[in-house]
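For the sake of transparency, this paper describes our internal protein records without simplification. The tokens are whole numbers drawn from a learned vocabulary of local backbone shapes. One such record is reproduced below, unchanged from the form in which we store it.

. . .
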Amino acid sequence: MKSVKFFSSISKVFRNNKLSNFKKAALFFLISAIVLVVNAKFSLASACIQELSDTDKAEKIKADPANKDLKSGWVDCGDCKVYVDDDAKGKKDGTKDHPFKSIQKAIDIAKHHDCKNVFIKEGYYKQNNIELWEDIKITSPGRDKVIIDGNDKDEDVIKMYDDTKLQNVTIKGGKNGVEIKGNAKTLIWDSIIKNNKRDGVNIERSEASYEHKVNIHKTKIYNNGWNGIFSEKKRFYLEDNEIYNNGWDGVEFQQGSKGSIKRTTFKDNEGLGLRLTIDKSSITIDDCTFKDNDKSGLEVRRKDQGGYLKIRNETKFYKNDKYGIVRLVEEEIIQNKWDDSVKINSDTKFWDNDYGDISHLIEV
């Protein structure tokens, strides 16, 4: 009604014969400029989601009482990308020009409105216990430009649930940097995970199926107090990572895990480069490097429950403080059973490991 009265008033002004043509022309350009500004304002407001005023919220609930979404005070209004900026001030509705300050707030709003993307602008974020809900992706301008710091609290920095993606960020200063929940299919891409009290990435147990696979690519994981990656039974795929200077082992995968490791470097860890229990497991290692670890490059542990490990494509073991590969058995096992389950290609390279290239079978 207000807009109708406004344009009716403008029409009367233009019909006023007392105004010269020059004044009418000037008035026309002024009104056109106002309309452009108003349209721009509404265009910005239409990005992703917007917050309702208390009056609008009450009116919409009255008109549509069955719509539960209205009770949150937020409505979906177009392009589904929610923005975060640590310097955000004033109005915050998750749009590009009015981003949230809280990463969790952005994720919660994205989830509520079935959005799939949260974009974090360049900055330093002291936030922790972030829960990345199902089917949401976090990304940013670059992993050196966005740092999420858990502020040394006894909380994980971020928890990942099913069908989630974490890309182009640095995660630091938590109990664990990233905790991947059981049965979650996740992707960590081109990120840095460092300086956490326990594990860089802690992966909960699940079925070792493709539906629950953890993918970690092009990521540096270092200076964590315990392991770079610790995983219970899981399907996994690691590619083009650097895992180094961790307080215990670079990576550990427990019994029943399945997956592959490609072009990943394990170096300078205070324990082992990689620890595997291969019972009921199926794992391949391709073109990887194990060097300068304070114990052995790779530990392979086996009981007598089957399992398979293949090492191939010029994987290298050198300058480790104990063995290149150490072989442990928890029950007496004859040599040919071990040889059937662990295959090491002839192109695998060893040099300068202090205790030797491959250990004898060591019973523990």
